[in-house]
Amino acid sequence: MKLAPPAIWILLFVSLNGCAKDRSLAPPPDSEQITVTVKVPKELEAETMQVMYRSATCKRVTHGASGQRIEVEGHHSIDVQLQRQGLSDLYQASLAKDGGGACKWHLANVIFGVTYADPTRFGENVTSGAGGGVVVIFDHNNSPRGGADIKVDGDLIIKKDYYPWVKENFLNGYRKRVSLAGQGSIYLNYQALQARKVYFEPVLHSGFLVSSEGTKVHKIGSFIKFTYPDGSVLADGRSEPDFRKLQSIRLAAESKQ
Predict the structure, then answer these.
(1) Could you report the per-residue pLDDT of 33-90, keeping only the tens digit for each?
(2) Which residues are CB-contacts of 177 (< 8 A; sequence separation ≥ 6)?
(3) How many Cβ atoms are within 10 Å of 229's Cβ, its own excluded?
(4) How do the domains of the chain map onto residue ranges?
(5) pTM score, two decimals?
C-alpha cells in the first residue's frame, strides 16, 4: 500500500483536530483603544513595554503536579515602544483592547516602567538595576509578574516618589548597579478592568541618593549596609532602603529651604 506524503498526514491531523487557527493579532479598525502615558524625568528613559493578549478560543495545554492535562487561555506577547509626544517629556502608546484575529484576542496586561538612561554617570561599569516598574492587569488573570496588589475603578493615575539607589554586591561576583528605590517592590501591580487611560508619573528626587554595600561573606548577623542622604548608616537586616526614612530626610531638608 502506498503511504501518503508526510504533509498530507499533517493536513489531515490539523483538519481533524480543528487547531489550524491563525494565531496572529488582527485588531478591528473600530477596536476601543487603551492609552498608556509615562511622564519621564530627564535622567531616566522609558523601558520597552511588554504587552500580553489572551484568548479563550486558542487554548494552550499545560500539566498539573500529577501529570494531568490542563487547558488554559492562550497568550500572545508583543513588545511596544512608547513614543515621545513632540518635544515634551510624555511618552505614549495606544493599544487595541480587542486584539481580534481568529483567536479573538483581548488585551490582558501590560508591563512598563522607567530606568536610568545613562547609569555610568554614577561610575564606570555601573549598570541599570531594578525599580520603577508598573504592571496593569485588564482582565481576571495574573500577569507574568503575578497578581494585582491594588484594584481600581475607571482610569488609572499613578504618581510615585523615587530615589536613586546605588548598590554594590560582592557575593557571586562584583556588581554595581543604580536602581530606583520607591514604595513597595520592583513593580507596582494594579488591576484596572475599566481603564481606558493609564498615566504614570515617576517623581525622581535625584538629589537624595542612597547607597548600599552588600555583605562579602555568608555569615549570620552580616547585613547589607545602607548609607542615607543625611549621612546616617544602617545595617538592620533590610534588603532594600527604608522608603519612609528617605521621605522623612527629603521633607525635612525641603522644609529648611
Answers:
(1) 999 999 999 999 999 999 999 999 999 888 878 888 888 899 999 999 999 999 999 9
(2) 119, 126, 127, 128, 129, 166, 167, 169
(3) 18
(4) 24-63+70-255
(5) 0.87
